[in-house]
Amino acid sequence: MDLTKFHKFFEHCLGNWTTERTYHYLTHQEVERSHTEFKINALTSALKLKVVADNQYIPPPQVETLPGFALAFHTVSEKGEEVSQKLNLLFVPKKENGLILEGDYLRDKAYEESRPIVSHFCFNGSTQELLMTTRYTRVVSVDSISLINPNLRIRRIYNYQRPPEDQPLENLILVGFGVEQKER
Asked: Which of 123, 127, 112 is nearest to 161 (CA)?
């Protein structure tokens, strides 16, 4: 499996970023804007192993070579609400089909629920888009990061009401859009 484009994508993601986002709450027709500052550092081998252990995941071979981040962010909404969080995440490729790479996305703390979680990712090496799908208890979050260039990313977030198992995602309850710029 050639992971060159995948690793390059993650190298470009390291650093300090600022984001302006808009969230559209479809359940009650509200639009909210927010500003986020976040810092992304490479995850150490020891923390990669901790994320694996936290998720009771079978350690993948050569875990030290897999891309992982230590992520810290602080968000302020236009209403003045503030949220800060730190988490560690690791990407474990499982299969490749041409320029499409799929696998598991492990976090020691999830966004919606404060617990370790294993999600699914799909990376398109042609479009430089990382698509992450997380099945929480009540919602399914589909999060897209498109790397436009090393200093600019476009973010899309779709949250669906979680359907019964084996049913399609249909009831969209939140849509988010963001422009993320790396600080120089």
From this structure: 112
Task: Establish how many alpha carbons lie within 13 A of residue 4's alpha carbon, considering only the half-sphere containing its beta carbon.
Answer: 3
**How many Å apart are CA 70 and CA 57, to the nearest integer?**
19
In single-letter form, the type of residue at position 183 comes to E
How do residues 12-58 score in pLDDT, each as one tens digit? Answer: 999 999 999 999 999 999 999 999 999 999 999 999 999 999 999 99
| 136 DSSP assignment | -
Q: What is the pTM of this model?
A: 0.93
User: Residue 64 and residue 74: Cα distance in Å, rounded?
Assistant: 28
Q: Taking the alpha carbons of 76, 109, 180, 21 in that order, is the dihedral positive or negative?
A: negative
What's the sign of the alpha-carbon dihedral 124, 117, 168, 29? Answer: negative
- Alpha-carbon distance 69 to 12, whole Å? 12
Contact in structure between 117 and 125 (CB atoms under 8 Å): no
Q: What is the spatial distance between Cα 144 and Cα 177, in angstroms, rounded to a whole number?
A: 10
Distance of CA 151 to CAs 13, 19, 64, 90, Å?
Answer: 8, 12, 26, 22
Residue 11: partners with Cβ closer than 8 Å, 6 or more residues away: none
Amino acid at 119: S
